[in-house]
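Morning!

This is the sequence you dropped in the shared folder:
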Amino acid sequence: MLDWIRPLLAVALCLAALPGWTQPPTDLELWRKRHAEIRVAPDPDFAPIDSLDAKKQQQGLAADYLKLISQRTGLRFRVVPVDSWADAMDALRERRVDMLSAAFASKAREEFALFTAPYLRLPCAVFVRGDSGLTLNQLDGRTIGVAFEHVCQEDLDTLAKKAQIKGVRNS
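The structure's back. Tokens below.
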């Protein structure tokens, strides 16, 4: 029934044995040749997900994932240390880095970055003093501090429309 496959395989094997004959490179192989090293800006203060130690070495879950990806694919990642999350975002916008290792997708970020499927999902949360009795609906007119350019800032802009959402840079 599949008698036609044997001659086809024989021709393919003969071609593969010819000196100098190679398979054309795939798109992925071409991309990897053009991108021998991928520059990564970690979030320096997002432990245990992503952070930098005192020697500016990346640590955390994101670092572990990058090591596994490197081992399995041969891709090389070079950490570009930054002082804050805002600095990491600026480095990506200005193309001083190729990727962020722990960024969550948002509409605003999709204007300048591409995103893979998430490897982790974390909900945004608002914390108040235990004795305040405040709920999300009672935040109107109050100031809420959020890490500058954190994805939760966009969520709070939508959920607490009358609150003053203030992006705070960490020093």
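Headline: The beta strands are 37-41, 45-46, 50-52, 58-59, 76-79, 99-100, 143-147, 164-168.

More detail when I'm at my desk.
O.
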